[in-house]
Amino acid sequence: MKPSSPADMVYTYIKNQIIAKDLYPGNRIVEEDIARETGISRTPIRTALMRLSYEGLVVRQQNKGTFVAKPSATDLRQAYEVRTLLEIGAFRAALQRRSDESVRQMKESLDRQIELNKHFNMAEYASLNREFHWIITMESHNPYYEKYLNELHNKVATYLLFWDGSTDNSMSLDIHTRIYEAFRDRDAEKGVEALLKDIDLGQRDICHYQHI
After folding, report:
1. How far apart are alpha carbons 22 and 14 in whole angstroms?
2. Where are the alpha helices (DSSP H) in 117-187?
3. Of 144, 162, 139, whose CA–CA distance to 209 is shortest?
4. Which domains does the chain have, with CATH numbers?
């Protein structure tokens, strides 16, 4: 395996602090502190912060610094509203264009989610959840779905890490199974129904633990 670059190391270091809740939404990230704690120079730190900013985990404010992102209730509702419209469109397009290989990939992702339920970890769930839905996006073969759903999936992963206190993925797993079956069978009605339930479940869980 290729050794991690200094920027990759800083990225992982900061992201793990956010996942572990050592850094909370709204906390400032001080580059000098990161440099002292990791022994890595400022340039790779800035590269890592740019990557985290793109993923929605941090926000960079001119003349103020970098802060752990603090999504509002309005941010969450608006992101899920747009995600619903785009993902249903991508799913319908993907059913017409999907390959047998993508069906296999989705089944493998689902199998990993089944294993995860035995030793649940929210960070791993957020990654697997994104991977599962991204297969649908890629099979739409539409660069606009890819562009905008990529940003929204990054935001959703952020919301899960910050606000979802679930201790297992059993409900999500049941719905993802239905999405997979619909994708495999090219069943648009079943797939859209399952997608709506999946998106609603994610939003409700986040709102519950955020007390919105």
Report:
1. 9
2. 122-139, 143-163, 170-185
3. 162
4. 6-68 (1.10.10.10), 73-210 (1.20.120.530)
Number of Cβ within a 10 Å radius of residue 3: 6
Distances (CA, A) of 95 to 92, 172, 179: 5, 21, 11
pTM (global) more than 0.85: no
**To the nearest 10°, the Cα dihedral for 169, 172, 173, 177?**
-170
The model's pLDDT over 127-165, given as tens digits with 9 standing for 90+, comes to: 899 999 999 999 999 999 999 998 888 778 777 777 777
Phi-psi region of 27 (alpha: psi -120 to 50; beta: other; left: phi over 0): beta
Q: How far apart are CA 153 and CA 156, in angstroms?
A: 5
Structure tokens at 169: 């993925």
Closest by CA position to 66, among listed 78, 80, 77, 52 = 52
- Distance (Å, whole) CA 200 – CA 95: 22
CA–CA dist 81, 79 (Å, integer): 5
d(CA 92, CA 137): 10
Partners of residue 28 on adjacent β-strands: 67
More confident of the two residues 160 and 14? 14
Tokens for 58? 């941090």
